[in-house]
UniProtKB/TrEMBL annotation:
Family note: Belongs to the ROK (NagC/XylR) family.
Any Gene Ontology biological process: regulation of DNA-templated transcription
InterPro entries listed in its UniProt record: ArsR-like_HTH (IPR011991), ATPase_NBD (IPR043129), ROK (IPR000600), ROK_cs (IPR049874), WH-like_DNA-bd_sf (IPR036388), WH_DNA-bd_sf (IPR036390)
Pfam families for this protein: HTH_24, ROK
Protein name per its UniProtKB record: Transcriptional regulator
PROSITE patterns the UniProt entry points to: ROK
Length: 376
């Protein structure tokens, strides 16, 4: 049941209006196109409220009238649909080894993508680099239609580890202050998120977990992270660091981790752990060396997934990340049959992401879109 503005204090009326706008855009994104009457039924809003919101959305270019549906008798209703070209969002994934970006339209379709190396990790250099990259894209796609910038990077944020930094993490982005400066500088909302959570949201918007309400996303990149989606929403925890899957202990007698514990999953399953392993082998680049690493990584992952399933009872777990597709596919095959858990006997316990290596930057681009189109 939706609250009507009349039942709320005046200060909340605009919040309700914004929420109702998002609710309508959400329905249109899910269903393609709907008439005003169908929108009223789907959202529970009154026809006058619907008419007002649609006019707002038409004026702002976020929806359009798609013509009349064929009808046997009477005047057929005009269909409303999301105007894909009505807005776009930039998603940018950054770590110490480089960046990649995706530009997505309001419907979540990719319209451009690219990659490169970052030019320095100091806060000032990074700020200039991020601002220049965004402004170049905004100039090309129209600053007025920009929904914002989604910026993703390995977590955790504002955490104090005793040892060396998280693999791939850029110190200047592990606190939120640089993002506040960037927001002021480029004049649009900047959504900072850890790469795993962003990739999970991208997967929910347009991947194998499309509209799945309870799932866990395993992000394999320089480190390994996790994204938790519960009741259709990301679960971020108290400080935005929920899902730090890479620090799940799979062998307390294992190698020391930079978090201070020993035998964390990330010590076995991550691109940095693959390179470390290869460096200790006589022929590190060989197929045999990669196979040996995969066997150990798959075993560690399979142990960790039992805990995820028992803890969260997710509809599915998605394996993805910034690691090469072919490596993830081999890892997926290596995990094979899932170990027993509360999900024993269920179908589709583990799925391979189909969003490719840009899953995190794509997920980043969905953050501003979700902010505009999700009622949650
Ligand atoms: Zn650890």
């Amino acid at each position: 049941m939706l609250e009507s503005p009349a039942n709320l204090p005046a200060s909340n009326a605009s919040d309700v209006r914004r929420r109702n706008r998002r609710l309508m855009l959400h329905e249109l994104r899910l269903r393609g196109s709907l008439s005003r009457a169908e929108l009223a039924r789907a959202t529970g809003l009154t026809p006058p409220a619907i008419a007002g919101i649609i006019q707002d959305l038409l004026d702002s270019g976020l929806v359009r009238e798609a013509g009349r549906r064929k009808s046997a008798r009477g005047q057929p209703p005009i269909e409303i649909e999301i105007a894909r070209e009505g807005g776009y969002a930039v998603g940018l994934r950054v770590d110490t080894r480089g960046y990649d970006f995706v530009v997505s339209d309001l419907g979540g379709e990719v319209v451009a993508s690219g990659q490169g190396e970052i030019q320095g990790e100091e806060p000032e250099e990074l700020l200039e680099f991020l601002a220049a990259l965004y402004e170049g894209l905004a100039e090309k796609y129209g600053a007025g239609r920009s929904l914002g910038l989604g910026l993703v990077t390995p977590g955790p944020f504002d955490a104090i580890w005793p040892g060396i930094p998280t693999p791939g993490a850029i110190a200047a982005l592990q606190t939120r202050s640089l993002v506040e400066t960037l927001t002021t500088r480029i004049g649009v909302d900047v959504f900072l998120e850890n790469d795993a959570t962003a990739a999970a949201l991208g997967e929910r918007l347009n991947g194998v977990a499309r509209e799945v309400n309870h799932f866990f996303y395993v992000f394999v990149g320089e480190g390994v992270g996790g994204g938790i989606v519960m009741k259709g929403e990301p679960y971020r925890g108290e400080s935005g660091n929920a899902g730090e899957f890479g620090h799940l202990i799979v062998d307390p007698t294992g190698p020391r981790c930079y978090c201070g514990n020993s035998g964390c999953l990330g010590q076995y399953l991550s691109l940095s752990s693959l390179r470390q392993f290869q460096a200790t082998q006589p022929d590190g680049a060989s197929e045999a060396a990669q196979e040996a690493w995969l066997a150990s990584a798959a075993r560690a992952l399979s142990l960790a997934l039992v805990t995820v399933e028992n803890l969260l009872d997710p509809e599915m777990i998605v394996l993805g990340g910034a690691a090469p597709r072919q490596l993830l596919a081999r890892l997926f095959d290596r995990v094979g049959e899932m170990r027993p858990s509360v999900r024993l006997g269920r179908q589709r316990r583990l799925l391979l992401s189909d969003l490719g290596e840009r899953s995190a930057s794509y997920g980043a681009s969905t953050l501003p879109i979700i902010a505009v189109t999700s009622p949650f």
